[in-house]
């Protein structure tokens, strides 16, 4: 369920807070009189007053006589050198200096003399990759380029390109493959319009009103072509269009793009009927559908889909309603869908409710979507003080009579017993009795969260049962250790019995670790490792390893590496939602690969001021990860997988993509508050990133890393 998560903001580092507290204590002593000191019985005279820097009296002091007649200097008592006596006293001044009056920081070792002009950067990489995937060995050699240029007249220009040579058999022998994308964002036009343009390998655009769906997900279509996005924020107008050739991403560690035989066209608009009513429409024409190949990887096949999607939302002070309608024709099979979503906010309670009817063969673009269902749903969320709870109930019937008919419900509660301890649990049930059969299932979850001096720990118990007699249970322990700055480590251990059918259960034990460490100022290592052993109906063992390292061998040169060992996975038996888009590609063959990259980075220019800040402001970095949050607690556990190839926007102008570890990074970001936006176009189904998590605000401090972890969730 939806949770609003506020990122903690540290107004001052701990050493600065301690220094200010010390100054305040000394200042209070300075204002005390000898009589007051005598009354207090402290036996100490008032402390000498000290002026702030820049007052012309930086080392001045005022004699303060103790009861034994000697001169008391509090700074000498704390180990500071003695002040020169005889200086005239001065008035105390506030020691907090406005940011615009700070002296410039000494330059970074990576900076050069090219500090004039807007921010700009680029990187070039030489890449080598060797892999064994499903018994097939291959070598990929190539080069990559990326960069951005923040202009004053043409918006922010960014580019990413990859060209590599592959000898994989499925690539038909020796072939050159790659991707290239060019973006122009934030181009200001007359009339208050803002323009974003894209060229190369893209995903079809969609208005926010249609993209932000609560119960049903309509994915975008990958293509190679061009797109444009016009926005007029004051009037609530938005116009989008895209044209290209459809296809699918290919490659193991290096992503190429396989162009299909058909074309893709989309045109969309969003507008404001009135201050409370918005509308949107999207037309999508595609030739081709994405289906799994013999290795479980996405493959683009010929097919023809024409679809029209429209939505209208009414926003009240505490309530909102959105009506969505979709009509499609896929290879001659026409279908229609309609669903209504509502939300009501009542103090600590949030109510969500809706009705839906999606006919069989309903289609949207290249990916499969929900269809052949009708019914309604209700959700309630409660958050107040130490309590948080939610509950849901769905009634689902098959339109054709060939699908799921029954009820689906779940409930969740959590109580924060103390600042360090919280506990709760959840219950999920699915009940279906179509044609005299029984397709019921239940899951139970109990957990305890504990914050200690050693870090944060979760103990969790899951149990599942279905009508076929398959019983599963597992006990998990996740612990995020409290580490020094520059290090991170999470550990996970699990034991249980997992059953996919009545044939029997497999006793399974797992151990996992995720983290990283800055071994030196120039060398860092991070990654994850997972060991699993099963015995019984599914006797197997395996180790999944994803290890990355970065070595800065010179001021602008880095050597990056990645080692991957993967034996695949299967769908969890603890996910019961009957209309959730379950993963199409569940099991992957054995994958072992090593990746090496020699990278050159160039950066120049100074960032613009943020939230009223001046030009040439001090900078920091933003680093983060996107991961698949299995237990929906907002904390990345060692057993939770990263989400790769996901685009993250900074202030709507600069973009970065997550790597194999789910990491993304923005360097030299101006100090202040910034907005991040996650575009989940390449997020695997059925995972979604909720609005509150996908659009966090991040506070950047001088020469520090602002860290943010964003978890994708799926409804249980």
Describe the protein's architecture and organization.
By secondary structure, the protein is mainly β. The protein has five helices and 33 strands. The strands form three sheets. It has a 26-stranded antiparallel β-barrel. The protein has a four-stranded antiparallel β-sheet with strand order 29-28-31-32, with no helix packed on it. A hairpin with a 4-residue loop joins strand 19 and strand 20. The chain is globular, with a radius of gyration of 30 Å. The N and C termini lie close together (9 Å). The relative contact order is 0.10. The N terminus is likely disordered.
Key features of this structure:
single chain, 716 residues, mainly beta, 4-stranded antiparallel β-sheet, 5% helix, signal, Carboxypeptidase-like regulatory domain-containing protein
In short:
The chain has 716 residues and is mostly beta strands. The chain contains 5 helices and 33 strands.
Described by strand count, sense and barrel closure, the largest sheet is: 26 strands, antiparallel, barrel
Number of helical stretches of at least 4 residues? 5
Q: Give helix % range.
A: under 10%
| Model regions low in confidence, pLDDT < 50 over at least 5 residues | 1-87, 581-588, 609-613
Q: What's the number of extended β-strand segments?
A: 33
Calculate Rg over CA atoms: 30 Å
Morphology call: globular
Task: Please write out the topology.
Elements lengths: L13 H18 L2 H7 L33 H4 L42 E14 L2 E15 L5 E11 L8 E15 L3 E11 L4 H4 L10 E11 L4 E14 L5 E19 L2 E16 L5 E18 L3 E12 L2 E14 L2 E10 L14 E12 L2 E11 L8 E13 L2 E12 L8 E12 L2 E12 L4 E11 L5 E12 L7 E13 L4 E14 L3 E13 L4 E10 L24 E14 L14 E10 L18 E4 L3 E4 L5 E8 L1 E8 L11 H4 L2 E4 L4 E8 L4
């Amino acid at each position: 369920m939806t949770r609003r998560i506020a990122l903690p903001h540290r107004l001052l580092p701990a050493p600065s807070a301690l220094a200010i507290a010390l100054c305040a204590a000394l200042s209070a002593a300075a204002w005390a009189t000898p009589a007051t000191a005598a009354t207090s019985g402290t036996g100490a005279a008032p402390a000498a007053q000290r002026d702030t820097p820049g007052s012309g009296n930086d080392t001045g002091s005022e004699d303060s006589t103790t009861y034994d007649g000697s001169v008391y200097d509090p700074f000498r008592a704390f180990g500071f050198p003695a002040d020169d006596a005889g200086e005239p006293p001065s008035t105390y001044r506030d020691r907090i200096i406005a940011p615009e009056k700070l002296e410039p920081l000494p330059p970074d070792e990576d900076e050069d003399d090219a500090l004039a002009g807007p921010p700009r950067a680029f990187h070039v990489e030489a890449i080598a990759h060797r892999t064994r995937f499903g018994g097939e060995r291959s070598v990929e050699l190539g080069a990559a380029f990326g960069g951005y240029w923040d202009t004053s007249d043409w918006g922010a220009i960014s580019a990413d390109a990859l060209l590599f040579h592959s000898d994989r058999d499925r690539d038909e022998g020796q072939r050159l493959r790659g991707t290239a994308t060019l973006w122009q964002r934030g181009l200001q036009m007359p009339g208050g319009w803002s323009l974003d343009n894209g060229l190369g390998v893209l995903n079809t655009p969609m208005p926010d009103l249609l993209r932000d769906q609560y119960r049903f997900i309509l994915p975008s279509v990958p293509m190679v072509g061009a797109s444009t996005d016009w926005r007029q924020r004051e009037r609530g107008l938005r116009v989008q269009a895209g044209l290209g050739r459809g296809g699918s991403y290919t490659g193991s560690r290096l992503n190429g793009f396989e162009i299909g035989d058909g074309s893709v066209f989309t045109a969309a608009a969003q507008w404001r009927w009135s201050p409370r009513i918005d509308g949107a429409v999207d037309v999508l024409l595609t030739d081709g559908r994405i289906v799994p190949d013999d290795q479980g990887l996405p493959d683009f096949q010929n097919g023809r889909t024409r679809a029209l999607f429209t939505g209208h939302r009414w926003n009240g002070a505490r309530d909102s309603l959105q009506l969505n309608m979709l009509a499609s024709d896929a290879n001659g099979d026409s279908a229609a869908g309609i669903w209504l979503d509502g939300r009501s906010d009542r103090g600590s309670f949030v109510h969500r409710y809706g009705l839906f009817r999606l006919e069989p063969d309903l289609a949207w673009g290249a990916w499969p979507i929900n269809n052949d269902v009708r019914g309604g749903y209700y959700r309630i969320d409660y958050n107040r003080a130490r309590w948080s709870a939610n509950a849901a109930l769905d009634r689902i019937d098959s339109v054709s009579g060939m699908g799921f008919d029954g009820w689906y419900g779940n409930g969740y509660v959590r109580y924060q017993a103390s600042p360090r301890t919280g506990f709760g649990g959840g219950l999920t049930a699915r009940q279906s009795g179509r044609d005299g059969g029984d397709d019921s299932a239940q899951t139970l979850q109990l957990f305890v969260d504990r914050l200690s001096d050693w870090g944060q720990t979760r103990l969790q118990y899951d149990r599942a049962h279905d009508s076929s007699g398959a019983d599963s249970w597992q006990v998990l322990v996740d612990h995020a250790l409290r580490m020094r700055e520059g290090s991170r480590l999470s550990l996970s251990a699990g034991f249980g019995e997992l059953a996919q059918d009545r044939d029997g259960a497999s006793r399974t034990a797992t151990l996992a670790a995720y983290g990283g460490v800055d071994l030196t100022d120039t060398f860092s290592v991070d990654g994850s490792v997972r060991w699993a052993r099963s015995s019984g109906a599914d006797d197997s063992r395996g180790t999944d390893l994803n290890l990355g390292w970065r070595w800065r061998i010179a001021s602008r040169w880095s050597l990056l590496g990645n080692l991957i060992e993967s034996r695949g996975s299967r769908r969890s038996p603890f996910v019961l939602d009957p209309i959730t888009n379950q993963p199409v590609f569940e099991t992957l063959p054995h994958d072992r690969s090593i990746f090496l990259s020699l990278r050159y980075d160039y950066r120049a220019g100074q960032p613009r001021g943020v939230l009223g800040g001046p030009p040439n402001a001090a900078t920091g970095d933003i680093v983060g990860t996107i991961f698949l949050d299995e237990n929906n607690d907002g904390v990345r556990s060692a057993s939770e997988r990263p989400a790769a190839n996901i685009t993250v926007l900074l202030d709507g102008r600069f973009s970065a993509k997550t790597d194999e570890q789910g990491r993304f990074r923005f360097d030299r970001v101006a100090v202040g508050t910034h907005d991040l936006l996650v575009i989940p176009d390449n997020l695997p189904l059925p995972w979604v990133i909720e609005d509150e998590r996908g659009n966090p605000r991040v506070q950047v401090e001088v020469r520090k890393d602002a860290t943010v972890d964003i978890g994708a969730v799926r409804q249980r």
